[in-house]
Automatic annotation (TrEMBL):
SUPFAM superfamilies: Ribonuclease H-like. InterPro entries: Integrase_cat-core, RNaseH-like_sf, RNaseH_sf, Transposase_IS3/IS150/IS904. One of its GO terms (biological process) is DNA integration. GO terms for molecular function: nucleic acid binding. This is Transposase. PROSITE patterns: INTEGRASE (PS50994). Pfam families: rve_3. Residues 1-130 form the Integrase catalytic domain. Coiled coil: none annotated. The lineage of its organism: Bacteria, Bacillati, Actinomycetota, Actinomycetes, Mycobacteriales.
Amino acid sequence: MIVARTFSTTADTALVNNAVNMAVDNRTRSGSTILHADHGTQFTSWSFGENMRRWGLLGSFGTVGDCFDNAAMESFWARMQVELLNTRRWATTVELAAAMADYIDNFYNAERRHSYLGNISPTEFETLWTSTYSIPQLA
């Protein structure tokens, strides 16, 4: 499930810090939360590290060059490219950002079925999981 999204014309530290802040604002966390990212400069910056510490997030950065570390996000980007981005020409970046937000919030999370989740949406999976299991508390 995509729990936060921000848009910018540059992939900089401000962009990823805004996404982290949005995720923290949108989600209830129990115990420690792991934030997985790749080794891009925006994720290895001092500012990003400080923001993670501020929110009590644990960073996970995987192995350099390991294509499987970020496979879920790479799959998401590929699907959105086919299902949304390549379907038309976008007049403005504002129009594109609105379409991407709608795709994530109202289609990808809420309706799009995922085979690795048993052919249900991420929202349905989360509801099912949280009604079946308790969220572990880390000491």
